[in-house]
């Protein structure tokens, strides 16, 4: 939501000429090279959103002209403009490559403003790809250069960018601090347009902190005196979100309608589609399903049109890039043809020399004939003999030279042909050897993986079977004691303790954290003491262990008869049987999950009908399964900003939570903090698990999703957990990303809300 407030605020790193496009194109024909570069930059900027293919052509043309100049500054500018066009259509990797070339062009030239701006653009590309750690690193580099310029506007933009990264990672407090710094920067710079954006961003941060009153205060500041239609659209939309979260649906509806009026003036489908989606969510929350459906249908229609348009723009840009590559290849071919022509010229020259030698030979024969005819003239014969000798020597030398050059050329061609034939044979043999080695390696890997799988699956199944066996034994003991006590109870006694028995059967002790249990124990003890019940401390302790929590007013009569310890003893046995049956059920489910995971790995999909279920409830159920581990010293902190009902296979999704939570428990060695966030962003359901464990080493992190890869040397893992998590999430068109450093590991799962 807060990001879209800056989509229309493109931060230009250059000072463009303010001419209409037609005038710019006319002036381009006669302008000198330095001015042409600036005009082309402006034309690229004007067409980036509407016609990125044309914008790329202008940017590449400016780069070609800039390379002819000796000044590195326009070269770096042109690389950055090309990068911005690529980034506008989502080609962030190519954009970063061009930005890096711009920095390389500057090299050691002291241009702090341009250098800082390019680092900012690189950070923006990383931020758009949700690589926040890399983005922050580039923003920090940009800040070092921009500080040298004392440019308050750019410093404010950097604070906004850092605040956005903090917001994306859920650090709302840090985001608020950055936005406040940006407001101060813009106020001192006198830049009202940027100030409105900062107010809007700060309002969104407070809205994320569930403080709609404070959020509306800053949204109001963001619209006073503001005339920008896109900004006003987003500000009123955010005001609508604030009223929606505060359940003031009529005020929210009015704000959304105002936003829609401004959005229609901008004629931007993405803004209009976003508003209809927000209104769809508001009506859905308000219970007006008919209007909710209408808004969603409008959103879907406009969104699809915008997506089709965006796809067409991307295809056009790809076509332009293909033509550029084709042009480069044609130039390379032309260069090679020039080389061939040069070589042909050399051969022609050699042939000419050969013809000269033949001519000289004919001349020699003629001279010899002439000497026979004028044999009486001795002096002439001697002179002609000397001349012929000289010509013979020259001809012989030229003939030898020509023959030697031709022999060298033929030998070189023969040698190259032999080398090519040899290399071809070697490559064919190497390819054959590689195929054979690959087949052997795959077979060996399969056999090793199969042995490892059998060993670890056996371990995984033995654990729940052991739990079942232990639970059965404990149930038998409790049942034995219960049978001994039952004859002592009359029908009246049973009726008297019936409320306690009902509470036991409805309880679930495994869902209580250590902190909750301590609070409930203290509360029950105070209630029993006030009611004059003996042994109130012991009673409170045992009741909480059985999962019974306040209110407990219905249990006061049960323990006021003076036999509360006997009643408690009987209840403990019943509660033990209940807890053991729950353990058996959970262990059975775990065994079933191991078998299901194995089937899923070998390619046999789990056939189950998709069901609508609560995401947060399914997470809580998994936490309940591992409560015995968690209560030993792990604090669980939950931030459920939304509680969506999701259509999928609930058991498959719970497998994902199970693997992630258990990995976190093992990483923290039963001591630390597990934080779980559930929220909506960019029409995606986001679930983030963060633990304070030892982290995943950098060299291992890229392999954690590989099948059979495990870091558990004690054999406690099959190495299929995260592999199956990724497979399940991708089945529902989602994604799973793991970021880790010592003391903090974050598992970020995204699922489309439209599933």
3D architecture notes:
- This protein has helices spanning 21-28, 33-47, 52-68, 72-88, 92-106, 112-128, 132-147, 152-168, 172-189, 192-208, 212-223, 229-245, 249-266, 269-286, 289-373, 378-485, 491-506, 514-530, 536-545, 564-601, 615-625, 627-630, 650-668, 721-731, and strands at 611-614, 634-640, 645-648, 672-681, 684-691, 735-741, 744-752.
- The chain is an alpha+beta fold and 755 residues long.
- It has a 5-stranded mixed beta sheet with strand order 2-4-5-7-6, with helices on one face.
- Strand 4 (672-681) and strand 5 form a beta hairpin.
- Helix 10 runs parallel beside helix 12, helix 12 (229-245) packs antiparallel against helix 13 and helix 23 (650-668) packs antiparallel against helix 24.
- The longest helix is centred in the middle third of the chain and has 108 residues, at 378-485.
- The chain is elongated and about 160 Å long.
- The two termini are 21 Å apart.
Précis, in short:
By secondary structure, this protein is an alpha+beta fold. It has helices spanning 21-28, 33-47, 52-68, 72-88, 92-106, 112-128, 132-147, 152-168, 172-189, 192-208, 212-223, 229-245, 249-266, 269-286, 289-373, 378-485, 491-506, 514-530, 536-545, 564-601, 615-625, 627-630, 650-668, 721-731, and strands at residues 611-614, 634-640, 645-648, 672-681, 684-691, 735-741, 744-752. It has 24 helices and seven strands.
Keyword list:
single chain; 755 residues; alpha+beta; 24 helices; elongated; disordered N terminus
> Biggest sheet, in brief?
5 strands, mixed
Low-confidence stretches: 1-19, 601-606
Radius of gyration: 40 Å
The portion of residues assigned to helices is: over 70%
């Amino acid at each position: 939501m807060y990001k879209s407030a800056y989509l229309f605020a493109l931060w230009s790193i250059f000072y463009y000429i303010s001419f209409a496009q037609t005038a710019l194109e006319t002036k381009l024909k006669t302008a000198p090279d330095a001015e042409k570069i600036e005009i082309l930059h402006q034309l690229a900027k004007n067409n980036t959103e509407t016609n990125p293919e044309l914008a790329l052509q202008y940017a590449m043309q400016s780069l070609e002209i800039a390379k002819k100049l000796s000044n590195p500054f326009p070269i770096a500018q042109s690389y950055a403009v090309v990068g911005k066009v690529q980034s506008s259509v989502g080609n962030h990797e190519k954009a970063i490559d061009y930005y890096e070339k711009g920095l390389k062009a500057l090299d050691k030239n002291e241009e702090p403003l341009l250098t800082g701006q390019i680092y900012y653009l690189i950070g923006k590309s990383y931020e758009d790809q949700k690589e926040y750690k890399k983005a922050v690193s580039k923003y920090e580099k940009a800040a070092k250069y921009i500080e040298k310029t004392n440019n308050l506007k750019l410093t404010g933009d950097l604070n906004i960018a850092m605040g956005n990264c903090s917001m994306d990672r859920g650090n709302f407090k840090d985001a608020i601090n950055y936005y406040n710094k940006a407001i101060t920067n813009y106020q001192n710079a006198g830049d009202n347009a940027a100030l409105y954006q900062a107010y809007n961003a700060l309002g969104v941060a407070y809205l994320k902190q569930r403080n709609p009153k404070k959020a509306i205060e800053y949204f109001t500041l963001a619209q006073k005196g503001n005339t920008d239609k896109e900004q006003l659209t987003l500000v009123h939309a955010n005001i609508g979100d604030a009223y929606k979260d505060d359940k003031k649906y009529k005020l929210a509806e009015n704000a959304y309608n105002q936003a829609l009026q401004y959005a229609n003036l901008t004629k931007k489908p993405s803004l209009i589609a976003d508003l209809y989606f927000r209104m769809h969510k508001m009506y859905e929350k308000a219970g007006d399903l008919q209007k909710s459906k209408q808004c969603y249908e409008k959103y879907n229609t406009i969104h699809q049109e915008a997506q089709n348009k965006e796809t067409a723009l991307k295809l056009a840009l790809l076509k332009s890039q293909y033509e550029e590559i084709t042009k480069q290849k044609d130039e390379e071919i032309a260069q090679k043809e020039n080389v061939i022509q040069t070589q042909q010229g050399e051969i022609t020259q050699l042939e000419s020399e050969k013809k000269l030698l033949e001519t000289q030979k004919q001349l020699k024969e003629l001279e010899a004939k002439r000497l026979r005819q004028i044999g009486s003239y001795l002096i002439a014969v001697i002179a002609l003999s000397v001349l012929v000798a000289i010509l013979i020597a020259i001809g012989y030398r030229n003939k030898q030279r020509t023959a030697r050059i031709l022999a060298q050329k033929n030998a070189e061609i023969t040698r190259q042909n032999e080398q090519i034939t040899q290399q071809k044979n070697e490559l064919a043999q190497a390819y054959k050897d590689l195929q054979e080695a690959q087949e052997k390696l795959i077979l060996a890997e399969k056999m090793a993986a199969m042995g490892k799988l059998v060993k670890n699956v056996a371990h995984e199944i033995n654990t729940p079977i052991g739990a079942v066996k232990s639970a059965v034994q404990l149930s038998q003991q409790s049942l034995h004691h219960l049978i001994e006590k039952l004859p002592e109870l009359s029908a009246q006694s049973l009726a008297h303790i019936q409320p306690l028995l009902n509470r036991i059967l409805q309880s679930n002790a495994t869902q209580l954290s250590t902190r909750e249990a301590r609070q409930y124990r203290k509360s029950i003890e105070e209630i029993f003491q006030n009611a004059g019940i003996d042994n109130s401390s012991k009673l409170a302790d045992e009741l909480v262990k059985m999962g019974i929590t306040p209110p407990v007013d219905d249990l006061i009569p049960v323990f006021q008869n003076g036999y509360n310890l006997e009643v408690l003893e009987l209840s403990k046995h019943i509660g033990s049987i209940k807890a053991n049956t729950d353990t058996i059920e959970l262990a059975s489910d775990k065994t079933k999950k191991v078998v299901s995971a194995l089937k899923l790995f070998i390619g046999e999909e789990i056939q189950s009908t998709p069901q609508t279920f609560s995401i947060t409830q399914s997470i809580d159920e998994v936490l309940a399964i591992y409560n015995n581990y968690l209560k030993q010293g792990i604090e669980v902190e939950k931030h459920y900003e939304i509680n969506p009902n999701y259509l999928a296979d609930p058991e498959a999704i719970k497998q994902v939570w199970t693997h992630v939570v258990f990995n976190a428990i093992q990483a923290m060695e039963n001591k630390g903090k597990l934080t779980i966030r559930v929220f909506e962003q960019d029409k995606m359901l986001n679930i983030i698990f963060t633990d304070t464990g030892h982290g995943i080493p950098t060299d291992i992190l890229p392999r954690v999703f590989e099948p059979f890869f495990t870091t558990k040397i004690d054999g406690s893992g099959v190495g299929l957990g995260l592999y199956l998590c990724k497979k399940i999430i991708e089945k529902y068109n989602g994604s799973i990303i793991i970021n880790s450093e010592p003391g903090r590991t974050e598992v970020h799962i995204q699922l489309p809300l439209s599933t």
